[in-house]
Automatic annotation (TrEMBL):
SUPFAM superfamilies hit by this protein: Integrin alpha N-terminal domain
UniProt xrefs under InterPro entries: Crtac1 (IPR027039), FG-GAP (IPR013517), Integrin_alpha_N (IPR028994), UnbV_ASPIC (IPR011519)
Name recorded for this polypeptide: ASPIC/UnbV domain-containing protein
Record keyword Magnesium present: no
Lineage: Bacteria, Pseudomonadati, Bacteroidota, Flavobacteriia, Flavobacteriales
Superkingdom of origin organism: Bacteria
Length: 499
């Protein structure tokens, strides 16, 4: 039986000259401790509501397995994805259209030399195990993966990171959910200890580059140091070049999660890395516009976090037009600690929220993701708690309602079907311009919802929206009403689909 626990708490912080209010409620969709690592938020059954998929560990005390919570008007319905594979300890989960049929399929990475898992969606949220070629036949020890159309041929490829000095691998999709392993790449022979990765155009040349975060160095099972992270430039001809002489690959931290985000709205991708060692602070690297980076050490999202962090999710949680950040903290052998919420401000700095949900409870958390789960225009949070025998996962319901918003659902025609890797720029009638790069992987083992969400503050009109697709196609739409969901089809029209 599912039991619903709702705690309503409000708070206020001085983020700017005005008081910012951001009330959250807490819901336990499931009281069963699952040892969860990663979460993906997406509409899997086509009913217009975002569902929740959780990657779980399986051992003698936790036998639930990977789980979908289907979101219906009357509540959530739990469906276990057993398929005879309860022995698979999963760490990351991905909802992605691997076969170009317009619905979202499922992919889980697993540990301990087992096969990674791929399930195809029949269009209504029913899944069947699939043979993905090398992607599912390789036996690996994989904490994470990241999906992207790296070669711009219209289908989604995947990079899988591996532990314990195993090579990371790039798997290339033939468009039919059949994957072959790239035989060459600068990651071959690197012997890293990968935890997460992210694709994004980091130097503005139109090709998605690859950033990989690593944990520690080991010899004979003993930790002897930390690993640097790695950046691979996509040359556009199917090959990659290793980045050197950059702070994003020179620092050695025990890293666990990464997100690429344009936090300062200057139309280039910055990098935020979560680190686990208590001696390391999380790192925000600012892109200068050409793929060179500087490290920002004077922002609260960096200097206020000197404790083990894994998950992260960026989004405008109070719909004021500035990006905020949620950080999930905790690791094995460390006391339960609070997670962090930072509100973004007009000068692209951050103010930490204290003494309120979703940042007052102590947990050992892992992945976190955001999306509009109750279909009211603001971003909710789902947090995986894996430490201890009694920790259920947390669903934080955003109760903020005073600012405007817009959600965009992209449909590629030449580009991949969900428009992953698109740039979106939006200008409001109060002359604010905001940008998003559409990428779903966030932090550790998790994915945000496949919708491009903007908070609009007090704006009453969206003067224009420009979408730059991975194919090179560019579209501009003008004079759109706020507080609505729009579908944008590449090379065609924009449609208001809800309400």
């Amino acid at each position: 039986m599912m039991r619903l626990l709702l705690l309503l708490m409000g708070f206020s912080v001085m983020a700017t000259s005005q008081e910012a209010k951001l009330p959250f409620g807490k819901m336990h969709i499931d009281e069963i401790p699952q040892g969860s690592r990663g979460v993906s938020i997406a509409d899997l059954d086509g009913n217009g509501l975002n569902d929740i998929v959780v990657a779980n560990q399986v051992d003698s005390t936790k036998q639930l397995g990977n789980t979908i919570y289907f979101n219906h008007a009357e509540g959530y319905k739990r469906v276990a994805i057993a398929d005879g594979k309860l022995d698979a300890w999963s760490e990351s989960v991905h909802t992605v259209d691997v076969d170009k049929d317009g619905d979202l399929d499922l992919f889980f990475t697993t540990q301990f030399g087992t096969h990674n898992l791929l399930y195809l969606n029949n269009g209504s949220g029913h899944f069947s195990a699939a043979d993905g070629g090398a992607l599912t036949s390789d036996k690996t020890n994989s904490p994470g993966a990241c999906w992207c159309d790296y070669d711009l041929d219209g289908d989604m490829d995947v990079f899988v990171v591996n532990r314990e000095e195993e090579d990371d691998e790039l798997y290339i999709n033939n468009g039919k959910a059949e994957f072959k392993k790239a035989m060459n790449g600068p990651w071959k022979g690197q012997g890293g200890d990968g935890r997460a990765c992210a694709w994004g155009d980091l130097n503005g040349d139109g090709m998605p580059d690859l950033y990989v975060v690593n944990f520690v160095r080991k010899t004979d099972g003993k930790v002897i140091g930390k690993h640097p992270n790695q950046l691979y430039w996509n040359t556009g001809n199917g090959s990659f070049k290793t980045a050197t002489n950059s702070i994003v690959v020179e620092e050695e931290n025990a890293s666990y999660g990464v997100a690429l985000v344009d936090f300062d709205y200057d139309h280039d991708l910055d990098i935020y890395v979560t680190n686990v060692a208590s001696s390391d602070v999380n790192a925000l690297y600012e892109n200068t516009g050409d793929g060179t980076f500087g490290k920002l050490t004077d922002l609260a999202v960096s200097y206020q976090i000197k404790r083990p962090s894994k998950g992260q999710s960026w989004g405008d949680f109070n719909n004021d037009g500035w990006l905020d950040l949620y950080v999930a903290n905790g690791t094995e052998g460390y006391p339960e600690i609070q997670n962090y919420l930072f509100l973004g401000t007009a000068d692209h700095s951050f103010v930490r929220v204290y003494n309120s949900l979703p940042a007052i409870e102590a947990h050992i958390s892992a992945g976190a993701a955001s999306g509009d789960l109750d279909h009211d225009g603001d971003l909710d949070l789902y947090v995986c708690n894996w430490g201890g025998e009694t920790e259920a996962n947390d669903h934080y319901t955003n109760l903020h309602s005073s600012n405007g918003w817009i959600k965009l659902r992209l449909q590629g025609t030449v580009s991949n079907s969900f428009g992953i890797g698109s740039w979106i720029s939006l200008t409001t009638d109060d002359q604010r311009t905001m940008t998003r790069y559409f990428i779903r992987e966030t932090g550790y083992g998790s994915e945000n919802a496949p919708e491009v969400h903007f908070g609009l503050g007090n704006a009453t009109l969206i003067e224009n929206i420009m979408v730059e697709w991975p194919s090179g196609e560019s579209q501009t739409f003008r004079n759109l009403a706020p507080n609505a969901v729009y579908k944008i089809i590449e090379g065609k029209e924009i449609k208001r689909i809800d309400p």
